[in-house]
Amino acid sequence: MPEPLGEQKTLYVVVCAAGPASEVGTLVGLAQDRGWTVQVMATPAAVSFIDIEALEKQTGRPVRSQHRAPGDPRSPKANAIIVAPATFNSINKLANGIADNYVLDVMNEAIGLGVPTIILPFVNSAYASRSPFRESVEKLRTEKVFVLIGQGAFIPHEAGSGSSGFDTFPWQHALDKAEKNI
Ligand SMILES: Cc1cc2nc3c(=O)[nH]c(=O)nc-3n(C[C@H](O)[C@H](O)[C@H](O)COP(=O)(O)O)c2cc1C
Fold it and tell me: What pTM does this model have?
């Protein structure tokens, strides 16, 4: 296991509206154990999938899903971003430069700035077989974004069987990838 980071680093954990979103506290805890400051962000659709109060207590920071109001404190700058679980919808939008919500805005800019970005999808094999999705994965990889799908990473499940994959969702793998690439 990698050593805890010497100085405090900030990880943005971006949550999309897919099944394992409710378990994202697992990733937050793993990252905190390794010395990261964690800022959780959620797509508007993911807000109802997560326990905002519990995550705010765990991180000591507000969960962000909207642009801040003037005067509200800024989030610390990210040293790395993990998008987990990442949906079919958000992966396709991000690959194509669409920024129609707060987290997509943040991620589109961060990729342009070269912030290490790791995407851990949670999609079924029907979604994963679509050519727009496969093209999106390739486009993101061309931009040096890590998309953790395939052997040794997230393997798409059959449509309708998603909940069986919650327990084995590879949160740790995404964190390892972030630490290797900061
Ligand atoms: C209960 C539920 C489970 C869902 N699970 C998934 C999923 O596992 N993967 C996925 O890509 N979309 C899933 N969706 C569909 C997304 O929530 C939907 O496409 C949404 O618009 C995604 O928004 P976001 O990408 O902004 O988070 C699910 C929707 C619901 C209501």
Answer: 0.95
Of 78, 72, 37, the residue nearest 58 (C-alpha): 37
Q: Which residue among 87, 107, 133 has the greatest number of ligand 1 atoms within 8 angstroms of its CB, and so is best to mutate?
A: 87
Torsion sign (Cα): 147, 108, 83, 124: negative
Give the number of the atom of ligand 1 that is nearest the alpha carbon of residue 123.
Answer: 9
Around ligand 1, the residues with Cβ closer than 6 Å are 16-19, 43, 45-46, 87-90, 122-123, 127, 162
9-67+76-180 CATH, one of 3.90.226.10, 3.40.50.150, 3.40.50.1950, 1.10.10.10:
3.40.50.1950
Per-residue model confidence as pLDDT tens digits over 124-167: 999 999 999 999 999 999 999 999 999 999 999 999 887 777 88
SS3 at position 176: helix
Q: Summarize pLDDT for 94-131 with one digit per residue, the tens.
A: 999 999 999 999 999 999 999 999 999 999 999 999 99
